[in-house]
Each structure stands twice: as C-alpha cells, then as structure tokens.
Amino acid sequence: MRFFSGFNYPAGITQQRDWVKRAYAGGVPMGADLRAAAAGGKKDSPRFLVHAVKDPDGANLDRIQIVKIWLEDDAQKEQVYDVSWSGNRKTVGDGKVPSVGSTVNTETATYTNDIGAIELIGEWQDPQFKPEQGAVYYARVLEIPTSRWTTLLAVKNKLPLPTSVPAAIQERAWTSPVFYRP
C-alpha cells in the first residue's frame, strides 16, 4: 500500500505515469506530519492518494477506506470513508459501498478470485475538513471474503462448522497514518 497527503496535488494526479514521484515531491507519505503551513493559506482539505496491490498468493481486493480520527469536545471521534472499490458498485445514501459479495464455499473452505480487483487506486478529500482541527488519517484495504481459520480447520478435520463465529472474514491491511497538524 501507498498513502500520501498534500495540499497542492492536482485532481487526477494518480492517472499520471510519474504520480508516485510527484506525490513525494508535493506532499508527505504515510508516517509523516502534514502541517497547515504547507497549505499556503488554502482552506481546502488536503488531497489524499491511496494505492494498493493484492498479495500474489492472496485474495483480490474489495475496497480502500480512509479512516479519520480527531478530538472534538474532549471526545475521540472516528469516521470511515470508502475511497476506491472494485467493480461497478455505487455508493448508497450514507456514502458507503455495498458488499462486494462472496465466493466462499463453506463445504470446501475455498474461495475464488472471480470478484474484486488486483489493484486499487484513489484520490480523496475530507468533506468535513476543518483547517484548525488536528486529525489523524490512515488508509486500509479490505480483501474479498475468504474462509475463516475456524472454517478451514473444521473442513480439514471433517467437523461441523462452528456456529459462534462467521464462516468467512475479510482480511485487511493498513498504512501508517498521516498526522494533520494545524
């Protein structure tokens, strides 16, 4: 996964061949501080760039999300945004993308990579951005559903599937955060 943020990235930067080089030059990578001074007086939200490629031996990718964490009235707040996703799904009323579906066969504890994507890339700006409010942003990528370890063990040992846990899960990976500091 790659994750960058900056105030001066043009829309569509990830469509350019040298976008990674330009991302490093014009903003900050994951793990870094993004200072309000870098905005040069702009009040717009910084642009976030995300990129994920599936593990060669793993499941295809469902979606990339950006998670924002901030303090408000001495309470920690969190918001999750769907940024890039596989297939032709559209966001619904709450801005979330519907489920990718599942190819998990619980009788054999297998799945197929008939859904999802090998690679996802996206650009996003925080619709709730407040220049005076510090925040932490990180990206996470979700794979398509695969068999849970309990399902794998039950099938391998010819035991009934446990009913106390789901038969399938969605593995995920996440980036180091970008720390926005006013």
Structural account:
The protein has helices spanning 19-26, 149-156; strands at 2-6, 28-29, 33-35, 47-53, 61-72, 75-85, 119-125, 135-143, 146-147, 168-169, 172-174, 178-181. Strands 3, 5, 6, 8, 11 and 12 form a six-stranded mixed beta sheet that branches. A four-stranded antiparallel beta sheet has the order 2-1-4-7, covered by helices on one side. The protein has two helices and twelve strands. It has one domain. The mean pLDDT is 95. With 182 residues, it is mostly beta strands. The radius of gyration is 19 Å and the shape is elongated. Strand 5 (61-72) and strand 6 form a beta hairpin. 9% of the residues lie in helices and 37% in strands.
H/E series: EHEEEEEEEEHEEE
Low-confidence stretches: none
Helix percent reads under 10%
Sheet/helix structural class: mainly beta
Number of domains: 1
Distance between the termini: 26 Å
Tell the overall outline: elongated
Q: Enumerate how many helices there are, as a single number.
A: 2
Biggest beta sheet attributes: 6 strands, mixed
Keywords:
182 residues, mainly beta, 6-stranded mixed β-sheet, 4-stranded antiparallel β-sheet, 9% helix, elongated
Short structural summary:
This protein has 2 helices and 12 strands.
Question: How are the SSEs placed, and which strands pair?
Answer:
Blueprint: E1 2-6, H1 19-26, E2 28-29, E3 33-35, E4 47-53, E5 61-72, E6 75-85, E7 119-125, E8 135-143, E9 146-147, H2 149-156, E10 168-169, E11 172-174, E12 178-181
Parallel strand pairs: 3-12
Antiparallel strand pairs: 1-2, 1-4, 4-7, 5-6, 5-8, 8-11, 8-12, 9-10
